[in-house]
Amino acid sequence: MSVSVEESSLKELLIKSNDHYRALHEEHHRYDERLSQLAAIHFPNEEEKLEELTLKKKKLSLKDQMEEIFHQFKDYTVPQ
């Protein structure tokens, strides 16, 4: 799935100008980093497996929230 230059620019603008969007983006990034760490573990224990599953769900929820804000912003700023 490719992101257009326009969408990328709008997301960057939101990161710079919308505190809530920026906080969601930063938390999403932290979850992504932790998931990368967990993926590097060759034999994760049950706690690590549960953490990975929980982080994936939280990360998806954050992405949904970010997409909602993005679409509200896009609909407001881009004439149709």
Total DSSP E strands: 0
Residue share in β-strands: under 5%
Describe the biggest sheet?
Answer: none
Q: Unreliable segments (pLDDT under 50, ≥5 consecutive)?
A: none
- Please tell me the overall pLDDT: 92
Global shape: elongated
* Continuous helix count: 3
How far apart the termini lie comes to 23 Å
Give, in order, the helices and strands: HHH
Q: Class by helix and strand content?
A: mainly alpha
Rg, Å, rounded: 15 Å
Tally of distinct domains: 1
Residues in helix, %: over 70%
Explain this structure.
- This protein is mainly α and 80 residues long.
- It has one domain.
- Helices cover 82% and strands 0% of the residues.
- The chain is built from three helices and no strands.
- Helix 1 packs across helix 2 and helix 2 runs antiparallel to helix 3.
- The radius of gyration is 15 Å and the shape is elongated.
- The protein starts with a helix and ends with a helix.
- The mean pLDDT is 92.
